[in-house]
Amino acid sequence: MAKKKTYGFRRPKLSPVAWVVAVIWLLVAIVPYIFMILMGFKGSTEYIMSPVYKLPQHWSWINFNAVLHGSYFHGLLNSLLVVVISMFFIVMFAASAAFAFARLRFRGTAILFSAVVAALIVPIHTTLIPIYLLTNKLHVYDQLAGLIGPYVAFAIPITVFILTQFMREIPKDFFEAAIVDGASHARVFFQIYFPLVRTAVVTVGIFNAVTLWNEFVFAYVLTSSGNKRTLPLTVFDYQGEYSSNIPAIMAALTLAAIPLTLSYLIFQERLVNGVMAGAIKS
Amino acid sequence: MKLRNRKIILKRLAPMAALALAVTGMAALPAHAESTITLWHIQSTGTGPKLIQDAVDRFMADNPGVKVVVSPIANDAYKDKIKVALGANSAPCIFPSWGGGPLATYVKAGQVIDLNSYVAANSYKARFLPASWSNVTFNDKIYGIPVENSSVAVIWYSKSLFKKYNLSTPTTWTQLLKVVAVLKSKGVAPFTMGGKAKWPEIMWYDYLVDRVGGSAAFNAAALRTGGKFTDPTFVRAGQLLQNLVKMGAFINGYNGIDYDTAGMRAPLYAGKAAMELMGTWEYSSFLSDKMASDFGFFPFPTVPGGVGDPTDVLGTVGDNYYSISSSCADKANAFKVIQYLIDDTSVKARITDGRIPPVAGVKLTDPNNVNIYNLLSKANGVQLWWDQYLPPDLAQLHLDETQALFGLSESPSGMASKQEALASKLLGASKK
Amino acid sequence: MKRKPYDPLKPRITTLLWMLGPAVVMLAVYLIWPIFQTLKLSLYDWNGIDRKAKAIGFGNWVELFHDHIFWLSVKNSFILLLISALVEIPIGLGLAILIFRGGKRFRIFKFGYFFPFLMSTVGISILFKQIFDTNFGLINQVLGILHLSGLEQDWLGNKHLAIYTVALLICWQYIPFYMLLFLAALNGISPDIEEAAAIDGAASWKFTRYIQIPLIRGAMITALLLIVIGSLKYFDLIWVLTNGGPEFSTSVMASYLYTLAFKNYRVGYASTVAGALFFIVFITAISIGRITKRFREV
Question: Which of A199, B219, B385, C23 is the most exposed place for a label (fewest CB within 10 A)?
Fold first, then answer.
């Protein structure tokens, strides 16, 4: 197998303009974030009395400590459980369906695919009351397990849609040749198509993970006790608890954003590797 | 190579998934108790949650075999959540409300039980301030027990700013306009306002209606006993309000400022605004923000030519109220739980927390609360917040229209006719 | 073991079942069935609490056509759609190309650019309430020290401005996702093509313009469709940041239906709005699909 080559357009000379644009957008993207972190260190009256753009007078960890001694870790664990399990099912269910839509010929392919994609447009709020009733009937109300159903279902349309698009881009010859060689459909899916769309799986995976990590409405309506709360809800509670203490709320927001930021930092490397692996597909 | 990778991934994932299912599965095991009572409440601040939990613990100690499951819920979102639960017939045994229109809706739907026989026993009813029952009584039947607090809207002002500009607290509209003019000339916004939330704005309109036409004007229109929302009282209230808005009495951006996260209070603390019309609960916020020493209050002023009783106040005595849902399996014990929520121990705890329990003959210590209690006991009438009193659909229109009135994009008469149209649609034509 | 002779390209029914079954069942239970429930409810007058709903035929639908707040919400939804499409796609694409060309040198940018997408909507709304605040906000205060007080705005309280403020904030939140989508597509272009172009000595901007961009047209169409659908049913940030106000100036279809169901206690009528929302998104998505299909074939 050939080693990865360097190509002319992957490492073009960068004009100063490119650097300037890149830096400006970096500011647009992260200044609010930095603002949020700095706020967390301020005192509650300092926030109101002194201009917002000033650095904190004393760097105090009080706000962060208060949040960490609250229900932060409980919420973190709950979110982690729900998101990891949901993600597993989403990828499994959606990737196999996408493969079927992209490559298998059966009656009603087009109609079923349109139906799945049309499900993209279903607004969460339309389904809230029926889903609440269903959750009660299944005896999973106020349990983390009750969140997984809606989470998986609502992520399926976009995941199927994106993965189908990507799988269709893979030359059909791959599929036909493999089948004629005697490979089963399952084998073709698992060994050829799934690895080839890895980048897309990661992309849409990030999208889903972030969406679910921050999901509010279902978590809010389908759970009620404090020890079943996911992280966004614990943050939401801080808003009530520290109604006037904006810095404390900012500290809670910062801590809530850290897990996702860290996992993106780690995952991003994987993404780069995945892309590189994709480049050696000859 | 690739196949192995996949297997490794699956191997790594499988135990995690199993663990997760086990954890969530364990939580699904039913609790073993002879009777289980669920209780929702929205006391999320201060010692509120502890207060409720303590009362429930006392109940459970005295009543072994009955388990009470308490779920604290955040305020604004609770209103949506209880609606979903009631609609789905899975309401908790005990839940809080503000009385008025929404509770009336639950009553009409047969979702809450009549408590008359319960409060009649041992003259339990006499324990509470008489004014506290009006918001939970429909057709002479009581559907909720007043528990948490008493709060009315007053005008809070910054003592230091009033001293600095040599102002005294106004008692008439004309005096108020003068105060507004002085503050404006000094570059201080007279009033702060959290218009995004809408409900702080209707306090102005509702008070003005009371001062212009008296409580009779509103009651005749809302109860459809000959009054209309298009009567001159309502139009005049709107005009007075819009004149105030046009004077620039409210802080810049008032229609986008939130009440939550201190958006409305921040200008007061920073000295950018001098006054706010707000419920007396604001005092506990001032306390927890360590700003209480700078703020005092005065009652809403009278208006020229107005026939309203100047002692009338806008607010509630006793909310939150606790009701029992008709789907509750153990109603007798549920009522006992409510009694523990407002027994003598709980009353003491609430007073320590800076609240005014709706119980007759309480002894208050905080001078500010004594003032509020005096205001309450002097009041000839307590007008419940309109958005709590009116049927939800009309309440929402009232909120929307008042915001438009503040935004100067709706005229007082336009607002009046829209409210009257919806009122006659929902409540029928007004007849003498 | 010998198999029966059959068309090898044709999948067995069991294959189809395990591949499609789980996804289809999940959708049917959690999305499709509730939609039918909703359409049924749209024919009733129900406050969500009464045990019985009153059937009123198409009364709600008639009311809908005369409801100017509904039409204002539709208009706002389409404003959001236009702004999102015109801002998110070009900027997302530009950033993707920038990062693609920057390669390893721009890794830090790629990381930083993603930040807006990593915060929860609740978080963003609390944060930006502080940034947009008229009296204390970061933007107005910075404008103040730059002696540009004339530019200070009532970002969320001015009913002519608020929808644009909110729309741009939504763009800010979602640009990173589209950037990543385009980046994945750019990385998917076969290296052979690049190599061939490099050997031909094409200038790098020409390569981008004539080869890369046309080759990721598929991803662009996907992005457009996602934006169309996402914008028309958008709810989250608008709800937490403005509640659809002031004076319905930021009300969109989803926030209006939420208000109706949970504030006005009109679940029946809210279901009508939900049904209308469904049809509007459906028709728009299909039209966009038709138009882009032609574009794809060109």
Answer: B219
